[in-house]
Input
Amino acid sequence: MNTAHFDNVAWPEAEPIASGRVLSGSPQANTVVLYKDEHSELGLWQISPGEFTTVHQGYVESVTIASGRGRLVHDDGTVTELGPGSVAVLEEGWAGRWVVEETIVKSYAVITVGA
Output
């Protein structure tokens, strides 16, 4: 069993979001993978303020926000506010952007579609 607590995660060095995806700011992410196999990945993710695009191709992701504030803005204009305790499921094909106002820490589960 692999465990972690949000208050004392040993985060690896942050990596910048690819410049072609960044719309504003200089967001950087850290990821701690707790479990991974050929069909799924579970872990923790931290992202600093900024705005960037994302497209979910070939997978579904469930996220639970532990801390921070921001929103997910779907390409169709739907806005999902994010804050501590928020839970969201991003379906395969979801396209839009993250708008991070205050560093977000989330737990996530990614499941490959068609696996």
Notes: The chain has one domain: 15-112. The chain has no helices and nine strands.
